[in-house]
Design a protein that fits this description.
The protein is α/β, with parallel strands linked by helices. The protein folds into two domains: 8-236, no CATH class; 259-324, Orthogonal Bundle (Arc Repressor Mutant, subunit A). The protein has helices spanning 29-35, 37-41, 50-58, 65-68, 92-100, 104-115, 129-145, 149-170, 172-177, 259-267, 274-281, 285-297, 316-324, and strands at residues 8-14, 23-25, 183-185, 189-195, 202-205, 211-216, 222-223, 232-236, 272-273, 301-306, 309-314. Strand 7 (222-223) and strand 8 form a beta hairpin. Helix 5 (92-100) runs antiparallel to helix 7 (129-145) and helix 11 (274-281) crosses helix 12. The model is unreliable at 248-255 (pLDDT under 50).
Length: 325
């Protein structure tokens, strides 16, 4: 999957008569799992998902980072193994089972083409390559995605409902052109403008296969496969901004930030000591210190020394979260 950062490129599907009848709008859990590796690599590029990243930081020690970091290239390309397949149900269980059954040479070639090498752990002896890969992705899903998937899926499903209404009222070409400025469709082609592509411009063909059009929370423009795998165009899902606001600051919810921590985050400005913050909000220094350490572990604040005083200020991720809420 071509990435979405910095440089830009173009991928164009050339269509034959009847190909538009094979367009399928759908949500693909495995595709979204692969796309999220971009936010792990560069969280500041995905400010709308800052709350998700903050939550993931809390379970970072549960993630197979040695494998995950080897599944995304320097230009944010990811292997086509994450893409939906026409003969595989679009559930995470079915998609991971499909990976387990794939030939080592196919998976390894796909990863190497996108990333430039194979994650070291997957090259170890013992269990099959596909099993090790699927196990690592399943662990990532359980810790980083499954707790948040219902709210993510709700946004993606709402986007699909919007596309369904457009299909009924305006037709497929107008609906594709409504998926954002990165996608342009006409009677003979669908063109995707891809930020971050390190590859030459691509010319792709559907060859009578279904063409999936997939919304994503983790893309800045659009993406297509890197090679001649099942046809796919991905676009940025709409209406993401409100996705996390009910989780941040809701009393009693095991969410991303409690109300008092959110107040601390906003109050830090260019730097506050634990003592000053405690005095401002009428709490003990130990209570304020505990909250600041927890937010530091989430990557939202950082400590710096000013003489004998330790000051805390927001990280770029903390700035984004404070602004978002």
């Amino acid at each position: 999957m071509a990435g979405s950062c910095l440089q830009s490129g173009v991928a164009r599907y050339l269509l034959e008569a009847g190909d538009y009848g094979l367009v399928r709008f759908a949500v693909s859990p495995l595709t979204e799992l692969g796309n999220s590796l971009r936010a792990l690599r560069s969280p500041g590029s995905y400010p709308l998902q800052a709350p998700w990243y903050a939550a993931v930081c809390r379970v970072r020690d549960q993630l197979p980072l040695d494998v995950l970091s080897g599944l995304i290239g320097p230009n944010f390309d990811t292997p086509d193994l994450f893409n939906p397949r026409a003969d595989v149900p679009l559930t995470i269980e079915a998609q991971l089972a499909y990976l387990r059954d794939q030939d080592l040479r196919v998976l390894a070639s796909d990863i190497e083409f996108a990333v430039g090498g194979i994650p070291h752990r997957l090259g170890s002896r013992g269990r099959s390559f596909g099993d090790q890969l699927a196990d690592a992705l399943a662990a990532y899903w359980r810790s980083a995605f499954r707790p948040h998937w219902p709210r993510m899926r709700a946004v993606l499903d709402a986007d699909l409902a919007r596309r369904a209404r457009s299909l009924a009222e305006a037709g497929v070409i107008a609906t594709l052109n409504g998926c954002g400025p990165a996608i342009r469709a006409d009677t003979t082609s669908i063109t995707a403008h891809i930020l971050g592509s390190s590859h030459d411009d691509l010319t792709l063909y559907t060859r009578g296969r279904p063409l999936y059009v997939v919304p994503s929370l983790f893309t800045l423009s659009s993406s297509t496969p890197l090679g001649d795998s099942d046809p796919l165009v991905m676009y940025q899902a709409t209406d993401q901004r409100s996705m996390w606001t009910d989780t941040i600051g809701r009393p009693g919810e095991a969410g991303l930030l409690s109300p008092h921590r959110l107040r601390y985050l906003r109050a830090l400005g260019s730097g506050q000591s634990t003592t000053a913050l405690a005095a401002r909000f009428g709490v003990t220094p130990s209570a304020a210190n505990q909250s600041l350490r927890a937010m530091a572990a989430q990557g939202l604040v950082r400590a710096r020394r000013d003489g004998r005083t330790v000051l805390y200020d927001r990280t770029p991720l903390g700035d984004q979260l404070a602004d978002l809420t």
